[in-house]
UniProtKB/TrEMBL annotation:
Transmembrane segments: none annotated. Binds 1 potassium ion per subunit. Homotetramer. The gene is nnrE. This is Bifunctional NAD(P)H-hydrate repair enzyme.
Length: 545
């Protein structure tokens, strides 16, 4: 499923209306009806009635697919047995988002639900399609109040539709908009947001103050980027994407290149065999050979986790290269691994002299993963450069190897035949990009896309909803995973998985995207196996692969 910015959404609107000749008011009608359907669905579930669709983060963009991958059905009759118990406040902004709310109000009324329109601004100031909807609502006799002029008691309603600000919003909500948002949040009533929660930056997921905290967000036509990026993702509640008559086929014309990473996107878009078929004639040589370079005396576990994860990801063979001093201590830690002595110093640290042996080892293997538990050492920049320029196959760079990169301008290094996958967490990304961690988190998709394009690498920006970006501008946002995965070593496991997939012949973008997806899925599974997700440790993720 595509992800769009507000600007791209406006372009899609323009093409649909101006070129295809589909009237804006028809799109608004579809939008409002879809919103009403989702409100009725929410009421039904809340009252213990039959839920017509699966619970969770759901989407319906004509594909009948939800964000957790379950199939969903589409019983959306606009009726509600318990309608008499409902009274919804419809918060109406000045623009088309408000227009959507006015349409929804009509359909809710039709279903027998009491509605009160709450205009943020005097209704006379509405224009275009929104004004048309205002007049239709008035002609139907829907009760209306103007915020600040008429008395309003939020305690009297059973739910709130937030149709204040959509993709046309600029900056933090001002004046009466801010007051209404604060009052809605304080009411404790369930809030359904039209398109995006008012106060959310639709592109970056940044939450302005104030920002609506929605139970459900009915996103219209295309999934807005901000709904998948934290902190905004946390304010959106359950996200439902509803088709409103804008053809998905226009996406190509507008040049959409950002996707929510689903099994369909992996399979059809990226060409990944998500079932990971193994040939009946296959043998260990069929599935590639990973070289993991990492681990020091104090952080040997990082190298071990990455190497074990590469095995569990399906790599036929895995060699763990580590300082000679450590080698006797790790014998038998994972009997399936091969160990390689690269020298190093007396304390079991890596040193500049290990580069030659590493190059030799790497030449005989399909992929090299470097960084987990590597530590820093004298001459490490040249050491990494030797590896970068001297190895032919793909290179996965993580942890301290990223910190080495961050301290040098590697754009001058010779371009390499094999691809490069960088897997920074937000702190490492901040060092790579020369900005603060807070700035990294402000627009993760945008930053990942820029960095990947500028540096010609596949970038995996880790954290909740990991972003994968490629040099050609394509990006993916992954939503598998679990908060329990915030534990030491989880990143080393991801590095190993990506390397293991590369060894099996996936290209760098496929391996990065599928690796992130599988890592999250395994984390979810592992968390479910513990008595409490907080008990999850990185090794559990490997065992759940
Ligand atoms: N044809 C279309 O363009 C369609 C638009 N749709 C809806 O329209 C929305 C976009 O509509 P608009 O472009 O009219 O914009 P919005 O309705 O999002 O908001 C624009 C209005 O809010 C005011 N405003 C902007 N930022 C503000 C702030 N920070 N504080 C207070 N007021 C602020 C502006 O003065 C303007 O009047 C979408 O999110 C979607 O809900 C749907 O109806 C589908 C079709
Ligand atoms: K809204």
């Amino acid at each position: 499923m595509y992800l769009v910015t507000a600007e791209q959404m406006r372009e899609l609107d323009r093409i649909t209306i101006d070129r295809l000749g589909i009237p804006a008011v028809a799109l608004m009608e579809n939008a409002g009806r879809a919103i009403a359907e989702e409100i009725i669905e929410l009421c039904r579930k809340r009252n213990g009635g039959h839920a017509s669709r699966g619970i969770g983060r759901t989407v319906d963009n004509g594909t009948g697919q939800d964000l957790t991958g379950f199939d969903v059905s589409g019983d959306r009759a606009l009726t509600l047995d318990t309608a008499a118990a409902e009274h919804w406040f419809i918060l109406v902004g000045k623009g088309n988002n408000g227009g959507d709310g006015l349409v929804a109000a009509r359909y809710l009324r039709e279903a027998g639900i009491a509605v009160t329109l709450v205009y943020a601004v005097p209704p006379e100031s509405l224009t275009g399609e929104a004004a048309l909807q205002r007049d239709a609502a008035a002609a139907l006799g829907l009760s209306a109040a103007v915020y600040g002029q008429d008395p309003l008691d939020f305690a009297a309603c059973s739910g709130i539709l937030d149709a204040l600000l959509g993709t046309g919003a600029a900056g933090a909500p001002r004046g009466v908009y801010a007051e209404l948002i604060a009052a809605a949040n304080a009411s404790g009533k369930p809030i359904v947001s039209a398109d995006i929660p008012s106060g959310l930056n639709a592109d970056t997921g940044e939450m302005h103050a104030p920002c609506v905290h929605a139970s459900v967000t009915v996103c219209l036509a295309f999934l807005k980027r901000g709904l998948l990026q934290y902190p905004g993702a946390g304010a959106a509640g359950t996200v439902v994407v509803r088709a409103i008559g804008i053809p998905v086929s226009l996406a190509r014309e507008v040049g959409l290149q950002s996707y929510w990473l689903t099994p369909e996107v992996l399979q059809a878009g990226l060409g990944v065999d998500v079932l990971r078929h193994r040939s009946p004639e296959g043998h260990k040589g069929t599935y590639g050979h990973v070289l993991v370079a990492g681990g020091t005396l104090r952080m040997s576990g990082a190298g071990l986790l990455a190497a074990r994860a590469a095995l569990r990801a399906g790599s036929g063979l895995v060699t763990w290269a580590l300082p000679q001093k450590l080698l006797p201590a790790v014998i038998g830690a994972a009997p399936e691994l091969m160990l390689a002595d690269v020298g190093g110093d007396e304390q079991g640290n890596w040193n500049a002299g290990t580069a030659a042996e590493l190059l030799r080892l790497s030449a005989e293997r399909d992929v090299t993963a470097v960084g987990p538990g590597l530590g820093r050492f004298q001459g490490d920049t040249d050491w990494l450069r030797t590896l970068w320029e001297g190895t032919e196959g793909p290179l996965v760079i993580d942890a301290d190897a990223l910190n080495i990169l961050a301290e040098t301008d590697y754009s001058h290094w010779a371009s390499r035949p094999g691809s490069v996958v960088l897997t920074p967490h937000p702190g490492e990304m901040a060092r790579l990009a020369g900005i603060s961690t807070a700035e990294v988190q402000r627009d993760r998709i945008g930053l990942a896309e820029r960095y990947a394009r500028e540096h010609g690498v596949i970038l995996v920006l880790k954290g909740a909803h990991t972003v994968i970006a490629a040099p050609d501008g394509v990006s993916y946002v992954n939503t598998t995973g679990h908060p329990g995965m915030g534990t030491g070593g989880a990143g080393d496991v991801l590095t190993g998985i990506i390397a293991g997939l590369l060894a099996q012949g996936l290209n760098a973008l496929q391996a990065a995207a599928f690796g992130v997806y599988l890592h999250g899925l395994a984390g979810e599974r592992a968390a479910g196996l513990r008595n409490h997700p907080a008990s999850l440790i990185a090794g559990d993720i490997i065992e759940s692969l």
